[in-house]
Structures are given as C-alpha cells and as structure tokens.
Amino acid sequence: MKTRNVVVLLVSLVVFTNCFAQKESKKDKKDKNATETAVAPEAPQTPQPPVVTDTPECQVNISLFNESAKNKQFADALAPWNAAYEQCPGANKAIYSRGRDILHWELAQAKDAATYDKVFKKLMGMYDNRIKYFGDDEKYPTPWILGLKGLDYIVYVKNDELKKPAYEWLEKSIDGLKEKTEYEVMRNFIVLSNGLYKADPNHAEKYIADYLKVNAILETLAAGTDPKDVEIASQLKAGLDGLFVQSGVADCKTLDNLYKDKVQQNLSNADFLANVVGFYKRIRCTESDVYFTAAVAAHKIQPTAESANACAEMSVKKNEYTKAIAFYEEATRLTSNKLDKADYQYKIAQLYSNLDSYSRAREAARNSLEYNPNNGKPYILIGKLYAGSSIYDDPVLRKTVYWAAVDKFSRAKQVDASCADEANDLIRRYSPHFPTKEEMFFKPEIKAGSSFFVGGWIGESTTCR
C-alpha cells in the first residue's frame, strides 16, 4: 500500500509540474545574453519528428530536475535532468529551458579541459535537439533557438577567436525573426562581423551588408511606438554606428571600389540605388562620384528625400547653387522627418547667404527653426547676416545692426549648448562695435535700455546698449 501511495503521489506531482514546466524559466527569460520575446516563425517549419513517448519514470525525473533547478540546486538537478534528456528528449520543453541553466552550472564546475569540452559539446547538441523536437514552437521557433545557441557559443567556446559558427547562427536568427530578433543577437552579430573583417579584409562587402541589415531593423524599431524599444534600439544603433565607422570599412575610397561597378550594373534597380544613396549619406561620403551617380539614377526612377539631397550635394560641388536649392526644397517636401527637414532648410539658408540673398537666407533659417527649434546654427547664421548688413547711411545707426546680431548669437547658445563657444566668440567680436555712449548722446532715438527698431530688410526690434 505504501508503494502504491507513493506512486500516486508522484504522478500527481508530475501532472502539476509538467504544466508548470511548459513555461520558460525566469532565468532563461532574463539571461544577460538574450531575453525571450514572444515571436512567431517567419516561415512554416518542416514537419518535426513525433515527440518521444514519455514514461512515469521520465515524468518523475522532469519533476525532480525542474524543482531543483528552479531553486538553483543544480547539483541535485543534474542526474534527473541527464536521465530525462537521454530517455525522453521530446517530452517537455523544460528539458531545454532548465537544461541550459544546468549545463551552464556544470561548465562552471569543470575541473579540466576534457570535462569542459564534453559539457560544451553537450550544450551545443542540446540546442540541436531543441530544434528537432520544438523547432516549430510558436513563441520560440528555430531562429530564436539558433540565436540563443550563438550567444552561448560566444560565451563558452574555448580557443575560437573568430567564432564563425556563432556568426552563422546569429545571422540565421536575424533573417528568420527580423524586427523580433533579440537585441543581443544583433549586437553580437555585428561585433563578430567586425572581427571577421579585421581578420580578413575580403569580408568587407559582407560586413557592410551585415551592418545595413541590422541597421534597417534598428531604424524600424527606433521609429516605433514602444518607448522601451525606441530607447534600446536607438542606443544600440548609435553604438553599432560607432563601431562600424571606427572599423575603417566605411572609408569612402573602399566603398567606391566596392560599389562602382555594382552601381553601373544596377542603374535601373530602385531599391539597390536607394540603399547605396542612404548608406553613403550615413557614412558621410557625399563627395563621391559613385554616390552622385547612384543618386541621379535613383532620383530619375523614384525621387526620395535622400536622392534629392544627393542631387543637391552634387549641384553644390559644381557651384550650381540655384539647382541645389531646388533639390533641397524637394528633399524637404519628400521627407517626413522633421530633423531632416530642418537640415535641408538650413543648407538652403547657407546657399542663399552665399548668393547674398539675405532675406531669403533668413526665411530658410527660420523654416529650419520651425522644424528644429533646439538647433542654434540657424540663429548663428541669421546673426552673421545681420552683422554683415549695411542698411543705414548714418555711421552711428549703421552700428545698430550689431545689437540685432548679438541678440541672435545669445539666442543660439540659449537653445543649443553645442553652439556656445562659437556664439561667445561672435559676441566678443561684434560687441565692441556697438554705438558708444558719446555717439548715442547725439542720437536721442537710441537711448541706452530703450527699444530700437532696426529697419531695412532686418525689420526687428532690439535693445539699445
């Protein structure tokens, strides 16, 4: 009777534990290398082998290792986990979620290289088995499993500096999950690709392709509505941008060598040309003839803000300022990004300034501020326009433009700390040219502390000082 009661008790416990074990462990979800995010496989998976029929003994082992691992008692969990993994590997997903923790612990306990290598191979094989039995899981499909496998390979492999297997698994994870890819998978993928490029310059083109792939995903996430995703994606993108630029693969000459022939071969491929234009702009290689060729071809097929901007840059290089202004205006209309609109309008303001069309330059600068009021550069530009104006014949009144100019320089540093040094230099340069007290004495209309309207095209009120 006692034996029968024990069996009944164990079976009851198994039923409860089996339901519980279908959920991933908290540690598995919060692992520093990857956070499990609910995702669905991009494409239907191939039919999986039938789950191995479990037995009461298997269920008991699952219950035992699950409870022990949950309490971080991995030494107690090891034996029943090994038994369940070997006897019924398809019985329960907990064999893999808890098994990862157990094998991580076992790797930390390894006393010699042979033992470590044996456990490491078992860890990698465990992911293969998880794909075999649970690769079509709705939340954690094969691409997600490969991502986790790649991250563990990076952390635990010995004597493999380049880690190519992990690089390949991470890429498959990204290709399968797209915007649902784990952030750590994307970060490590680019880091590994960067390492492969350093080891072999022939990896340059693939590294660029890898960067563009991940960058596109991060841009989509950064433009989303989830505040957490927006913050994380933006930060990760900035970090990977820095790594990419520092790698040297972004050198304009290198890019030209890679893309010159490809651009010529794809002059009717709108998507390809748009990617090249956007990439060159991001890397700031906008003086390149390859960039201009791609931009002009792309603009003829399907005008975009980036292609219009590229055509404008080409026109500036040729000193065709009027054409450049027209292209920048087109770019402003085509983009929905306010910061880009602000940048295009600021460039228009600079070009009108070069053409000595001060009122139009100020109008464009003000447009730029409408889109981005926290940028001090348009204020700097307007101030310089004022300081360079001669709207009065009277030598004393002529100096009043410096009051209006300094007003703009002061405003620039108020809204944009990055402009403070330039603004202060300009204030120091022009303040000594204010009307003196003696000069103001003979001009009752400019009394210190009172308001004064600067006429002409400036048409603004300022304070006498």
Kindly list the characteristics that best describe this protein.
single chain; 465 residues; mainly alpha; Serine Threonine Protein Phosphatase 5, Tetratricopeptide repeat; two-stranded antiparallel sheet; 22 helices; 2 strands; 68% helix; disordered N terminus
Description:
By secondary structure, this protein is an all-alpha fold. It has a domain at 336-465: Serine Threonine Protein Phosphatase 5, Tetratricopeptide repeat, CATH 1.25.40. Helix content is 68%, strand content 2%. It has 22 helices and two strands. It has helices at 2-21, 26-30, 56-70, 74-87, 94-109, 113-134, 142-156, 164-177, 183-199, 204-222, 227-247, 252-265, 270-282, 289-301, 305-317, 321-334, 338-354, 358-371, 377-387, 401-415, 420-430, 437-441; strands at residues 451-454, 460-463. A two-stranded antiparallel sheet has the order 1-2. Strand 1 (451-454) and strand 2 (460-463) form a beta hairpin. Helix 7 (142-156) packs antiparallel against helix 8 (164-177) and helix 10 (204-222) packs antiparallel against helix 11. The longest helix is centred in the first third of the chain and has 22 residues, at 113-134. The termini are far apart.
Q: In percent terms, what proportion of residues is strand?
A: under 5%
| Percent range of helical residues | 55-70%
Rg is 33 Å
Counting helices, strands and paired strands, the structural category is mainly alpha
CATH architecture heading of the domain at 336-465: Alpha Horseshoe
CATH topology of the domain at 336-465: Serine Threonine Protein Phosphatase 5, Tetratricopeptide repeat
Molecular shape? elongated
Please state the average pLDDT score: 87
Query: DSSP helix count?
Result: 22
Tell me the span between the first and last alpha carbons.
105 Å
Strand order within the widest beta sheet: 1-2
Low-confidence stretches: 1-48
Largest sheet: 2 strands, antiparallel
CATH superfamily of the domain at 336-465: Tetratricopeptide repeat domain
